[in-house]
Every structure is written in C-alpha cells, then in structure tokens.
Write the structure tokens for this entry.
Amino acid sequence: MNEKQKKSISKFLSLILRHQPEVIGVTLDENGWTDVDELIAKMNASGHRLSFDELEEVVDTDDKQRYAFSPDGNKIRASQGHSVDISLGLDPTAPPEYLYHGTVSKFLDSIRKEGLQRMSRQHLHLSRDKDTAVTVGSRRGNPVILNISSGQMHRDGFLFYISDNGVWLTDHVPAKYINF
C-alpha cells in the first residue's frame, strides 16, 4: 500500500471513528470502540476496499497514532478528536507547566476575546512540544504558536486529560492563560 492510499484510508477512518460512523452503518460504543471485522466489512460494502492487514498497517504507521486497537485486537477506536458523544475513559491528569497550541493569525482576534474553544469536538487539543504545535498550525497556513499556562490553569481547577497518543485535552482555555 502506498502513502497516498494510506492517507486516504486514514482520512476515511477519521470520518467514521471520530465524526460520522453512520456513513457506513457502524456503531461506536460509549467509549468509542467498534468491532474491527464489522468495520472492515462495512467499509468494503461501501466501496472503500480494506483488508485487516491494510487496516493494521494504517494504524501502526500513522504518524500521529490517531487510532488504537483494543488489547485483544477485536476493536478499534480513534485516540481523540471526536465530535460524537463518547467517553475515552481518561482520568484527569496534571499537565506540564506549559502546553502549546498551533493556529493561524486570522483566528487571533477571536482567541484574544474568547480564548481557545473546542468548537465541534469534545475537547480542545494541546501539544506538549512546540514542533507538534507548528505542524498542527501549518495545516491552515503560516502557524502561530500559543503558549498555554496549563500548570496555572490546573491549579485554578481546570481539568486536563492525556489521550493514548499523547495529545493533551481540555474543554476550554480562557484568554488570560494564553501567552500570545
């Protein structure tokens, strides 16, 4: 499978496992898991040809580790980024003193007024390192990296979680915790 094919499958998996499982008729349980065999069968029935070995290759080689198999390998889910109502079952965790968020300049006025919002997703995504934030911000143009005073937020009572693939999650970052 070439890189273009893997990227196409990964994008479709993201749609199904994060946002619209109904597109192919799969169901996500309360923790976002769905049956691997059912996912493959329904992807194939919808014209998105996929074998178990190809699915495994996409999951194993994804640069952001967006997807995870259950310990027994029978189920799969997205590691974070859901707009559908699920619970990843993550425990609140104390974050490092600073986290980072990559964005672009056209959003800065809104962020200065309202802070960072989760928008249609269940959580707002933050990065532990600037390089990851640069990559995220670059998807929409020239990146602007925001330094988040996550340690102070935590001390002030805000909850943080860390996903299986190392993305820091929270519900909102008020502007007063953002160093522009």
Summary: The mean pLDDT is 95. The chain has two domains: 3-78, 99-179. The two ends are 42 Å apart (CA to CA).
